[in-house]
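help with this:

***
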Amino acid sequence: MRKAKVTSSKKLRVLALMHEDLIPPEEVTLKGEALESAPWKTEHDVMQTLGELGHEVRALGIGSDLRPVRTTVDEFKPHIAFNLVEGFADVSTFDQNVVAYLELLKLPYTGCNSRGLLLARDKSIAKKLLSYHRIPVPGFAIFPRGRRIRRPRRLRFPLFVKSLNLDASIGISQASVVETDEKLEERVKFIHESTDTDALVEQFIDGRELYVGVVGNDRLEVLPIWELSFTKMPEEVRRIATERLKWSLKYQKKHGIVSEEARDLPSGVKEKIRDMCKRVYRNLMLSGYARIDLRLSETAGVYVIEANPNPQLSYDEDFAQSAKKSGIAYGDLLQRIVNLGLRWEPTRFG
């Protein structure tokens, strides 16, 4: 890997990699809620801000062919690739292979390395690693497609059923929390058929939904703890981040879904969470930046639900807003992510 001797003040050639359907239009006419809900909002925010920082940015859409990457790298000669890819050839977990290809090209890139992506994207491997290092995670079991659905005795209801590999709350609804074996079998089959992935079933932790951003390679900075609050939800409704909640602005406003800095945390919990998130980050071999999702139960304490390498980076998402709360402006955050990518050495794991 070539050593990039670039400081934050140098203007760079940045190759922005994204899904081929998410390249923002050259002239953006959308405003307000229409822009907020645009599928390419993150890509637009990142590219526009990098341009405002003085960098020369070129977008490249990734579909199911990596040859354009090599061609563009040879022609454009970027200093770094800003990685916004979340899959390859319609397989979400193949983003790790795109990053591995960048490593083979010896092109610096932003975000998580290929090994960290592999470990964190497979929730089964991640949970086993974290359990080995005595980091609390909910009890869980994997239900592969084509196998008999039988609940282990150690798992007690209520249980939470979701995809083993997919992020962004895909496949998650109120029906994901089940309380009988019949409902468990029904929901596992739904995940198998609707997402074409194996199902992850874990103990449902009833409590506060917390998100914690972490930035760094060796020296880690933990951003302020963020919370997803359900201010207008009926009492009988489970407080979980469903797919509808994640993607519907109308639903969020109707039910008072607010993402903000966590307040009134019990004594000592903030320090415990910060330490726990650093341990998760290091044990899963993450780099660049990531978001750790947790649940805080009044009776059972803090549990790590999952780690999300390369989380959403749009200006108004949790990660950027948490950074802003700590005094890091959006442009400074993106520049820091670029600098971390320039300093990262993929061969460091041996």
Summary: The CA atoms of residues 96 and 118 lie 6 Å apart.
